Structures are given as structure tokens and as C-alpha cells.
Amino acid sequence: MDLAGFAGPSSKVVKPLTPEGLAAFNAEIARTGVVYISRIPPGMRPEKVRHLMSQYGEVGRVYLQKEDPKTTYLRRKYTTDKKPHFTEGWVEFKDKKVARTVATMLNAQPIGGKKGTRWRDDVWTMTYLPKFKWNMLTEQIAHEAAARAAKLRVEITQSRSEQNEYLRNVELARIVNKRNEKRKEKGLEPLQPKEKREKRPPVDDDTREKKNKRPRVDDDARNAQLQDVLGSIF
């Protein structure tokens, strides 16, 4: 989870929980509710979202997803807006009833505020996530990060393979051109690059045995066929 998009209570020293404390902690987690915001207004930071949501109830943790790095690079290159932008967010309320009420009340409503404020005319787009807890969000983010890393590794491997193939072809062309120059001086025909042969799929043992096995015809049957052919002729 990117710490730049996180806004929550200050970190504390974690102490071992007693069975009673663990039961109370689980009950507290069961009472929480999470609201999903599908669009974060440009330039709004986690601290601002936390401040706005705290007006309606006690807020636990807030996490906003940063925009794609490519989008950030292009925006900072071609515009004057250099501030970090976020695309979506999650807000944890201590009471899931409050979370449900807030999502129903604010969805598709203007953010509001004092006249002239930056996000006064922006509209909230949010929904309540039933049976969704904060630990599910952290697991989802970790899974997406691992998937992106695996995809990146595949792309890098493919790019290296293509680059090596290109360099190999360039070197081969250089060698062929050099040899052709020498052959031209001697009055010989130039060499032609060899075409790659298509690799045939491997043949398994069963297929090979079927090809090798031919139907056997016994002598009696062969003689009978020969007599029929001779009889039809004469």
C-alpha cells in the first residue's frame, strides 16, 4: 500500500492482545464499514478526504489510489499541474450504519463548501461496500501489485529476446555483406541469406508406431486378388 495515499491514525506500538482484548478488537472491526469513492477530484489529497468525511461520522483509515505513472508523467510534461493526483479511494467508518448512510446521502451530490473553493462544484461518486473490511483492501492491493510486477517481468523478458534477435540479425547481415564484397572482388556470385526452416512439431511414440505399422496382407489373399484381376482381363 502506497503511504502517499494513506491517511489514518498515528502509528502506535503494537502489544500482544489478551483473549479478551482480541475479542474486543474483532468486535470493533466487525462494526466498521467501508465506503468506496470511484472518482477523486483532481488535486484532492487523503487528508482533505478525511477532513470532509469526518463531518458525518468517526473515520478510521483513508486510502487513495495514485494515478498511473504514465498519466502522471504526461500531465506534468504538458500541463502546469505538478501536484499528485488520485483516481479512487476507500474510507473506513467506525460504524457501518454511518458508512451506509453517508454513501447514500452524498452519492451524486456536489461536494460544496465555501464560495470559490476548488472542489465546490465537483460531485461525489461513492457507494457502500457491504461485508467489506479493510484487510480485504490490503490483500487486493497486494495482489494487484504482484500481478503488475509479473506482467512487467514478462514484458522485459520479451523485450530482451526481441533485442537480442535484432542484434543477431544485424551481425549476420554485416558478416554476409563483408563476405559478398570479397566474393565480388573474386568475380563470384553473392551469398544469399538462409531462410529459417519452420520447426515441425515433435512426433510422439504412438504416432510414430502407427506410421511404421502397415497393414499386412497374407499370401492367400494376395493370390486371390491376382486371380480376380487376371480373370477380369482374360
Automatic annotation (TrEMBL):
Gene Ontology terms, cellular component aspect? nucleolus
**Example GO BP:** endonucleolytic cleavage in ITS1 to separate SSU-rRNA from 5.8S rRNA and LSU-rRNA from tricistronic rRNA transcript (SSU-rRNA, 5.8S rRNA, LSU-rRNA)
> Is Nucleus given among the entry's keywords?
yes
Positions of the UniProt region annotated as Disordered: 181-234
Q: Where is the RRM domain?
A: 33-115
Q: Which SUPFAM superfamilies match?
A: RNA-binding domain, RBD
Q: Give GO MF terms, alphabetically.
A: RNA binding
Transmembrane annotation, as ranges: none
Compositional bias (Basic and acidic residues): 181-222
Q: Origin, by domain of life?
A: Eukaryota
Q: Recite the UniProt keywords alphabetically.
A: Nucleus, RNA-binding
Subcellular location as annotated:
Nucleus, Nucleolus
Record keywords: Nucleus included? yes
Q: What is its main location?
A: nucleus
Q: Which residues form a coiled coil?
A: none
> Into which family does the record put it?
Belongs to the ESF2/ABP1 family.
What protein name is recorded for this chain?
A: 18S rRNA factor 2
